[in-house]
Specification:
Distance between the termini of chain A: 38 Å
Number of strands of chain A: 12
Largest interface: A-B, 24 and 28 residues
Oligomer: heterodimer
Order of helices and strands of chain A: EEEEEEEEEEEE
Largest sheet of chain A: 6 strands, mixed
Number of helices of chain B: 0
Largest sheet of chain B: 7 strands, mixed
Number of strands of chain B: 11
Shape of chain B: globular
Shape of chain A: globular
Strand content of chain B: over 45%
Radius of gyration of chain A: 14 Å
Structural class of chain B: mainly beta
């Protein structure tokens, strides 16, 4: 079973509109963390935002916020007031537990294209 | 500049050859991770080193090997290369063996093309 599911392979959004990128996860570990990364066409991976499983509030970083719904195992990324530079691949990833032997588990990504 | 340095940025080589990819982690980071990203796909974890020791292994082929040196830089060796090994290879680093709240810091990647 997929541990991280991103159901939107691609999205087109009008500039200045808000965008929601979906991410659902599957884990039985009570301690986990969720990450979003952006990969522009240039290829680099850019960390955007982090949400810990015990965090009481939804994470926010500038125009990025994470809509964390623990019971639904959902961690959607919301980008407010989208800009042309937001066009990129977006990946959701999860860290399970706090064990030192971990890797991030990655979703397949969503390709976001912002239209002028 | 993320602070994680990967060289070379691009590499074109023939099938059957061997290449070495190099990664210098961000200053102060002890963990190094290697990932492979094939065209239009997500990241596949290959291997993790922490302070010179192998810490975790993912879907790394036997033709591939890695090591982390005392100065904490890491090398990923790919041998008997096949066309399917063409991909973007990322190195990432983090302070501890945990991802912490900021996850990894990624390098800009090495794009390997096998012809």
């Amino acid at each position: 079973a997929q541990k991280i599911t991103q159901t939107q392979p691609g999205m087109f959004v009008q500039e200045k509109e808000a965008v929601t990128l979906d991410c659902t996860y599957d884990t039985s570990d009570p301690s986990y963390g969720l990450f979003w990364y952006k990969q522009p066409s240039s290829g680099e991976m850019i960390f955007l935002i982090y949400q810990g499983s015990y965090d009481q509030q939804n994470a926010t970083e500038g125009r990025y916020s994470l809509n964390f719904q623990k019971a639904r195992k959902s961690a959607n990324l919301v980008i407010s007031a989208s800009q042309l530079g937001d066009s990129a691949m977006y990946f959701c990833a999860m860290r399970e537990g706090m064990d030192s032997n971990y890797q991030l588990i990655w979703g397949a990504g969503t390709k976001l294209i912002i239209k002028p | 500049d993320s602070g994680v340095t990967q060289t070379p940025k691009h590499l074109i080589t023939a099938t059957g050859q061997r290449v070495t990819l190099r990664c210098s982690p961000r200053s102060g980071d002890l963990s190094v991770y290697w990932y492979q990203q094939s065209l239009d796909q997500g990241l596949q974890f290959l291997i993790q080193y922490y302070n010179g020791e192998e810490r975790a292994k993912g879907n790394i082929l036997e033709r591939f090997s890695a090591q982390q040196f005392p100065d904490l830089h890491s090398e990923l060796n790919l041998s008997s290369l096949e066309l399917g090994d063409s991909a973007l290879y990322f190195c990432a680093s983090s302070v501890s063996s945990h991802a912490a709240n900021y996850g990894y810091t990624f390098g800009s990647g090495t794009r390997l093309t096998v012809v």
